[in-house]
């Protein structure tokens, strides 16, 4: 990969001038004097997303309660409408997708639906590096079934920096009923081989779900070919849906006959929903797993943002993401390793998500020094600074400038002037 890249100020300008996605940068709100590298935590606002939000607000102002009946019931059926835009991003049929609730609620929904423990098959298989909300939800669900997490939650521990898929397969013993794993690890950017793990689970009659939160919008996903049972994801990271935008859930159509573990009136068939029957008339598609009235103000940004994804094409987005993160790693190797930095993510394209992880003994204070210089990354314990060059709006020239700023910070040790006291949000 290194042979593709060159050092020097002119090379990133050449790359930017030949970037087929470069024009999308003009459709995002970029703050002057700031290099934004936290799109893997919260994506930036786009003109398209804000326009969709404002259109919704105008409809609300004009129509009031009648908003549910305008535009062929667009907002009443907003999840279904957004699913049509989301389908190509996750590789599923629109009716297998619901845009609803939060990631954590959808984890509870998926697990409560597919976790059917028996005396012999009652364990849930997880790992020890996933984002903690997944584990909190899993522990809650096993308690609701009358088990203790120490008995019913089986944890695969990471033996080094990255996981080996064979360790998960080895842990698929006959007592495992369900598996929940992340596609991309938030701390290391490692991409698990979903097919290898999913196929092994199916061979052993184990239900499997995936958390796509750090993958969706950054890597290509084909849920249809994987034939997994369920998946969940957030929409405010790479999908740029807005702070706390409604999450996504995938239910394989082969399970549409099942009742959701958690039922609510918005999972009722639309035809009978406003008859307000006391008996649940389950809608037989992914939207049957919705709970309460949708948060349409938290969904509107997605309408605009997903149109950008369909316009650009995820294959093209992934191609640039791999290239620009590869360029960043090239510069780190060339300029920063001699100052104690190390690459903490996989280097292989097929094993790397959408962000670069830099490790350093002084990562926390260096991350704050970067913010003081107008660079916005984030820090993850114990020693990782995460940088997400987003295909839509990050330029190669910005990546070059970041590495130059890092070089200046460590050469002059300016980070030592910063307190080690932690902020609440890092």
Task: Give me some keywords for this one.
14 helices; PyrdxlP-dep_Trfase_major; Aspartate Aminotransferase, domain 2; alpha/beta; single chain; PyrdxlP-dep_Trfase_small; four-stranded antiparallel β-sheet; 426 residues; 2 domains; kynureninase activity; Aspartate Aminotransferase, domain 1; 12% strand; seven-stranded mixed β-sheet; globular
Protein described:
- The chain has 426 residues and is an alpha/beta fold.
- It has two domains: 134 residues, Aspartate Aminotransferase, domain 1, CATH 3.90.1150; 262 residues, Type I PLP-dependent aspartate aminotransferase-like (Major domain) (Aspartate Aminotransferase, domain 2), CATH 3.40.640.
- The protein is built from 14 helices and 13 strands.
- The strands form three sheets. The protein has a seven-stranded mixed beta sheet, with helices on both faces.
- β6, α9 and β7 form a beta-alpha-beta unit.
- α1 packs antiparallel against α14, α3 runs parallel beside α11 and α4 packs parallel to α5.
- It starts with 9 loop residues before the first helix and ends in a 14-residue tail after the last helix.
- The model has no long low-confidence stretch (mean pLDDT 96).
- Homodimer.
- Pathway: Amino-acid degradation; L-kynurenine degradation; L-alanine and anthranilate from L-kynurenine: step 1/1; Cofactor biosynthesis; NAD(+) biosynthesis; quinolinate from L-kynurenine: step 2/3.
- It holds the Pfam family KYNU_C.
- Its cofactor is pyridoxal 5'-phosphate.
- Catalyzes the cleavage of L-kynurenine (L-Kyn) and L-3-hydroxykynurenine (L-3OHKyn) into anthranilic acid (AA) and 3-hydroxyanthranilic acid (3-OHAA), respectively.
